[in-house]
Fold this protein.
Amino acid sequence: MPTILIVEDNKNQRLLYQEELQREGYTTVMAFDGKDALEKVREEPPDLIILDINMPRMDGIETMGKILSQNKQIPIIINTAYSSYQNSFMTWAADAYVVKSSDLSELKNKIKKILTDRPKDF
Amino acid sequence: MTHKPLQHNQCKAIDDLRNLLHRSQGMVLDEDLTKQLDHLCRSLESEIKRSNYPEGGFSHDPEIGWKLKNFSKQKNRERRQNDNIMDVIEAGLCLLDKNLKIIWANKTISDWLDLKDSPLGRNCKDIFHCKEAEIDNCQALKVFKGGESHVLETWITTKAKKRLCVQRFAIPVTNKKGTIENVLVHIEDVTESDKSLHWLFLLQKLGEKMQGTLHLDTLLHLVLTCVTTGHAFGFNRAMLFLINKEENVIRGKLAVGPSTREEATRIWGEISNKYHSLEEILDALEYNSNFDNSYSLMTQQMKYTLTETDEIIVTCAREKKAIIVADAAHDPRLTEEFRNAIGVNKFVCVPLIVRNESIGVIVADNVYTEVPITEDLVNVLTMFANQAALAIENAETCKRLEDKVTQLTTTQQRLIRAEKFAAIGSIVSYIAHEIRNPLVTIGGFTRSLSRFHFEDAKIKTNLDIILDEVVRLENILNNIANFSKPSIPKKATCQVCEIVKNICSLMENYFKERNINFSMEFEPSIPPILAVSSQITQVLFNTLMNAVESMPDGGDLSIRIKLIDKTIKIDIMDTGAGMKKEELQNIFEPFYTTKLEGSGVGLVISRKIIEEHGGKVSVKSKCGRGTTLSLFLPIQ
């Protein structure tokens, strides 16, 4: 089963994503901020990363830059409360941009699509 | 030795001369002449005394007899001459003795004072009809006592039935020793100078009044009131035209005057009962402004381009000269249109000139009283028009300045609001995102909970309510966050009445807490429409909250839904504080709010949403009475 790294500083939201994505049958790894995420990626690269933008210590955009410089193969979904970052070219590098919603179906659909579309060499 | 009889005869002759003189006293006009005669007698006497005339009486001397005869003739001739001069002179003259009896008067005085009998021997106060105060303060008496006369002004009616304004003053007449023997009363006609003085005063008064008004409409009304009021120019009607340079036209601005003869009689009666002076009329002006009569409305329709050279108004403005029309029916300077519009045969056009440039024209007539328009009056009216023009120019300049200031103030306010927009915008956006995170968690877990099976059906229902509300809140946040670029809504068929019912049942307790009597009224045939129900719910929520907040002490809130011409009209009516005109203009400005708490985006978002549904929003409000907000949603 694909492993998904969830980068989210809000503990409850982390729990929600974990619960929901496990329900979908994914293996989940949690990171509470950007630095934590970089470590987790280094330890074991996941199949997909869900990245929040507003986080302490290192924000999502900086984190994305660092991850991409290490490994361009991992698809990244930006999941944020801000719709405004959608216009920022920094986020264009991500594979998808999802505005946070209590309805996770959009996020789930994007995950499914990206994982299905990716090359089967993993 | 023969001196005595001679002297006796001579003295007798002199005595006779004296007697004659004495008898003619009261008839002789010139005291000097009398004195002169007396003096001659004296010198004659002394001459006789000095010379050694041969024997024989004075009367017998042929030379002296001849001299005397000549002397008498000359005296009569001189008296006639003097009488003639005194009678033709343009002044009334009479001579008083110490008892204030008239001992001499010229003819002018009899004509002017309309005297039937000779004034000689009468007391002066009887012919001048002096009032008690004047008798107590008698001019002639004062002069007799060595005082100075002041000028007394009165109006009289002459034998020729002419009204004259006259000035009267007393002049002392002294004898050789310097004692005052008589008083000469001099009466002068000052009617013309008085008239000029009257106009001068009037022009000054009107000028002052006009200078004191900078409000253009009030000023125009004031100008026309001056032209029409009986206390000033007294025309029956007057119109005022002003030139608009940008449009190259001269346009009727205002007219004052009754529309019909009946109205004229009624209004003039009212005015003369109500006001007694020009000041009173002009002071009361602001309160009786009524321009809605047909005469004024007609004037406001009149407009001529400045190139229409055959138009009398244009001619008057171009030539900068007053035009008196005495026979409009046959006057070639008038167009048929203007002739019909003004509907009077005699009128006058006076240009309003400032710095040698026409800014307008005043047209005045006496359509009801048909009093002729004299050149004198037109001359004064022209002077008045110049003053009026200056005042109008001032007022216009002032108005232009005011407009500029208003423009600046508006810009400034807009800038301030833009700053507020930025500040509040960032706060709103911050809060929106901060709220979104916990909402995601609440909604997400609720959703995951609702997938479980519950034995108690109520749990599932309640979870669904939580979920619905979370979704609604999220949509509100989306709308605020995406405020500048609204998302493309996904429309679905929905029933507006149902949405209203739902939201109202949710808000029922909220209404009760705030003492608000809520009522709904739906027309039965409201069809479903294609709409984003969450957006419509948000609009209703916003407007209902606004309505409730405008009634902090409770009130009536009602929603009425009607179908008008394929459009659903939703009226939300409150009995709250209402809004002022300025507030009303601003309510659709982003981040404009009068509330202490409130972002000021509610109504803007509401309008955006409604507009996206092809509808519109309108607001009617009366300060202190309440507000009605109407949402229009087209069926298709």
The mean pLDDT of chain B is 82. DSSP finds 20 helices and 18 strands in chain B.
